[in-house]
Design brief:
Layout lengths: L8 H16 L3 H5 L6 H30 L6 H15 L9 H61 L4 H9 L3 H6 L5 H5 L3 E3 L2 E2 H27 L1 H28 L4 H12 L1 H11 L6 H26 L8 H24 L1 H6 L1
Helix pairs in contact: 1-9, 1-10, 1-12, 3-5, 3-10, 3-13, 3-14, 4-5, 5-14, 9-10, 9-11, 9-12, 9-13, 10-14
Family: Belongs to the ZIP transporter (TC 2.A.5) family.
InterPro entries: ZIP, ZIP_Transporter
Keywords: Membrane, Transmembrane, Transmembrane helix
């Protein structure tokens, strides 16, 4: 096993900056919730969640999985180029050195670099087709199911005409499955939960504990990614930031509904975000354990895809409101899908130019 430096200065610096930004997102709930009310909240959340789905999926498929499979592995070549460059610099000190042969090797290295870059872009393009197919199938299913949802809402409207004017927006904010099963809680229900720890109600404790674990995993993902390369660290950080935004807004709303004051909810949310720093150093340290980094990245890719497709995407499919036409909802979601994909794709396509800055 080749022992590598676990805590490289650049990896630690950029990792700390990224985790600090992610942690500060715990404050966004207080900033955003007062600005988006009523129907506009549902519309903005459509964009935010779709953006999170796209960045998580794109990072996992376009960057993390190719790294696990060795497609993006070019460290050995870079080291070879550096050695050749060092030989050229010191050639005057070596009598009888065949400069022509060295220059030929350097030309070969640069040609190989160009070939490797073209191969990476080809892989990036082909994997983008996977994401495109998923998006097209989502749109087809979304459009095909609108008729069924419309008829279902019509029946529901006829049965509850006297209450719709008071409860329509609240029903829109709840997942469809919970509405059907009658399991959705109201804000008064949350405020009546028992106090279990330091004046916190059970719902608030579960939210904060879940946030702490969630943020620790995010920190591990960012740390492991920066341990590989700045490019992978950047794309993973963007994916984490995008999926933390709607997550933090939703959690902050639940904390307020559980009876916490705005100030106390902010402080507790920020404290739970600090676990990401511990996760960061766990991720950075994984590079010193043989094969651990590759396995860790594979697990991270799986978690990203699970959160994107089986958590957030399911929620998006239920986000067809009574006030907005289906095509407006689809346009808002598509804006988030396409925007998130473009961000991650551009970073991969112009990786060499970005690293050269």
């Amino acid at each position: 096993m080749v022992v590598q430096q676990a805590f490289r200065g650049d990896a630690v610096l950029w990792g700390l900056i990224s985790i600090t930004v992610v942690s500060l997102l715990s404050l966004t709930g207080a900033a955003i919730l007062p600005l988006i009310k009523g129907t506009s909240r549902s519309r903005w959340m459509n964009v935010f969640i779709a953006l999170a789905v796209a960045t998580l999926s794109s990072d996992a498929i376009l960057h993390i999985l190719p790294q696990v499979l060795g497609v993006h592995s070019n460290h050995k070549h870079s080291e070879g180029s550096a050695e050749a460059d060092a030989i050229i610099v010191d050639h005057e000190e070596v009598p009888g050195l065949n400069i022509t042969a060295v220059e030929h090797d350097c030309d070969h290295d640069h040609a190989h670099e160009h070939e490797h870059s073209s191969s990476q872009k080809e892989v990036l393009t082909k994997l983008s087709a996977v994401l495109f197919a998923i998006y097209v199938l989502y749109v087809v299913e979304f459009v095909a199911s609108r008729g069924l949802r419309k008829r279902s809402r019509k029946v529901h409207h006829n049965d509850t005409a006297s209450n719709n004017s008071q409860n329509s927006w609240a029903d829109v904010e709840k997942p469809i499955d919970q509405i059907i099963n009658g399991q959705a809680k109201t804000s008064s229900g949350l405020s009546n939960d028992p106090v279990v720890f330091c004046g916190l109600r059970s719902t608030a404790v579960m939210i904060l504990f879940g946030d702490g674990v969630h943020n620790f995993i995010d920190g591990v993902a960012v740390g492991a990614s920066f341990a590989v390369s700045p490019r992978l660290g950047l794309t993973t950080s963007i994916a984490v930031v995008c999926h933390e935004l709607p997550h933090e807004v939703g959690d902050f709303a639940v904390l307020l509904e559980s009876g916490l004051s705005v100030c106390r909810a902010l402080v507790l949310n920020l404290l739970s975000a600090l676990t990401a720093f511990a996760g960061l150093f766990v991720g950075l340290a994984s590079i010193n354990i043989e094969s651990a980094l590759e396995w860790l990245l594979a697990l991270i890719a799986g978690m990203f895809l699970y959160v994107a497709w089986l958590d957030m995407l399911v929620h998006l499919r239920a986000e067809v409101t009574n006030t907005d036409p289906w095509y407006l909802t689809l346009i808002l979601q598509s804006f988030g899908f396409i925007g998130g994909f473009i961000i991650i794709f551009v970073i991969g396509w112009f990786e060499d130019d970005i690293l050269a800055l």
